[in-house]
Design goal:
Helix content: over 70%
Largest sheet: none
Radius of gyration: 15 Å
Oligomer: single chain
């Protein structure tokens, strides 16, 4: 991954969270954390 791609991805992620915070109520971080917890529980089944 080049530096340009990494910076572009970082800006895209920051912009997504900023838009969520400003216009959508700021629930994206909580949703992402819940989804990640469910995914980890799903993966632990396969262990």
């Amino acid at each position: 991954m080049t530096n340009k791609i990494a910076i572009a991805l970082l800006l895209l992620i920051v912009a997504t969270f900023a838009v969520d915070q400003i216009w959508l109520g700021g629930t994206l971080p909580l949703l992402a954390a819940k989804t990640m917890a469910q995914f980890i529980e799903y993966l632990s089944f396969w262990r």
